[in-house]
């Protein structure tokens, strides 16, 4: 059965190729969406090519709702977005995919039922289809090549939904099995290097040494080090000192 989390219905309007329906199902499931509706598929339903292309997302096709026309598919929906790559004469709010999915999340949170329309592969949605929508989603594609594959358009919109649902941060940092180094650990590392570099005569001439040490410490502060990094850098310096002492003998 579909998941119980509120989410938009993705409505494929008169899709032409089973492979693209399967690809759309796969794209939806990549981002946790499982409410698919299919309107008047050209090659009939069910479609074995769709099943083959869906791979692990085949259950979305099993649970997909089939409609004979668009009014039937939208009968229980309270807000509808229509995806289109080119300007239309119709007067409607126009959203980016990100803005549309943010709006969808707000509406779903208020108990509304939201649908997103995706048109057939060859020419996209017709004006009569878009007239049934409350708003338009337009993807900022290359105007000289504005055609998007059905599954690509579904994937792009599904990704933006996932970002809104999960509030995915713009950047994260994987640090493996270590933890970030503390200020105390960084200070001990810097002191270790300063002492050894002083012994090696690096901070010369003496009157410039304080300024050089400030620049040196500033270098360390610009690097985010893990505890593993700190241990490795201590080891590097110890080995260099051993090598130098051994070479002197």
Automatic annotation (TrEMBL):
Catalysed conversion reaction: cytidine(32) in tRNA + S-adenosyl-L-methionine = 2'-O-methylcytidine(32) in tRNA + S-adenosyl-L-homocysteine + H(+); uridine(32) in tRNA + S-adenosyl-L-methionine = 2'-O-methyluridine(32) in tRNA + S-adenosyl-L-homocysteine + H(+)
Signal peptide segment: none
Pfam family, one: SpoU_methylase
InterPro entries attached to this UniProt entry: Alpha/beta_knot_MTases, RNA_MeTrfase_TrmJ/LasT, SpoU_MeTrfase, tRNA_m1G_MTases_N
CDD domains: SpoU-like_TrmJ
Methyltransferase among keywords: yes
Main location as per UniProt: cytoplasm
GO molecular function terms listed in the Swiss-Prot or TrEMBL record: RNA binding; tRNA (cytidine(32)-2'-O)-methyltransferase activity; tRNA (cytidine(32)/uridine(32)-2'-O)-methyltransferase activity
Any Gene Ontology biological process: tRNA nucleoside ribose methylation
The enzyme's E.C. designation: 2.1.1.200
Record keyword Manganese present: no
Family: Belongs to the class IV-like SAM-binding methyltransferase superfamily. RNA methyltransferase TrmH family.
Assembly information from the UniProt record: Homodimer.
Physiological role: Catalyzes the formation of 2'O-methylated cytidine (Cm32) or 2'O-methylated uridine (Um32) at position 32 in tRNA.
Stated name of the protein: tRNA (cytidine/uridine-2'-O-)-methyltransferase TrmJ
Organism of origin: Tritonibacter mobilis F1926
């Amino acid at each position: 059965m579909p998941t119980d989390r509120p989410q938009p219905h993705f409505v494929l309007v008169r899709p032409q190729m089973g492979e693209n329906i399967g690809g759309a199902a796969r794209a939806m499931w990549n981002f946790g969406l499982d409410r698919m509706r299919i309107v008047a598929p050209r090659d009939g339903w069910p479609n074995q090519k769709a099943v083959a292309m869906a791979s692990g997302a085949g259950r979305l096709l099993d649970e997909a709702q089939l409609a004979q026309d668009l009014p039937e598919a939208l009968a229980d929906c309270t807000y509808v977005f229509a995806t289109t790559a080119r300007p239309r004469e119709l007067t409607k709010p126009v959203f980016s995919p990100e803005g549309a999915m943010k709006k969808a999340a707000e509406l779903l949170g208020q108990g509304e039922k939201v649908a997103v329309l995706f048109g057939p592969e060859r020419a996209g949605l017709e004006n009569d289809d878009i007239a049934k929508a409350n708003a338009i989603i337009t993807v900022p594609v290359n105007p000289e090549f504005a055609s998007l594959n059905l599954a690509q358009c579904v994937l792009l919109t599904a990704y933006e939904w996932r970002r809104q649902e999960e509030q995915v941060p713009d950047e994260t940092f994987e640090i493996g099995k270590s933890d970030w180094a503390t200020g105390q650990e960084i200070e001990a590392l810097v002191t270790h290097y300063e002492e050894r570099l002083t012994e090696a005569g690096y901070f010369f001439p003496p009157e410039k040494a304080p300024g050089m040490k400030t620049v040196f410490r500033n270098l360390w502060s610009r690097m985010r080090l893990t505890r593993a990094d700190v241990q490795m850098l201590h080891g590097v310096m110890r080995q260099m000192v051993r090598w130098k002492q051994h070479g002197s003998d």
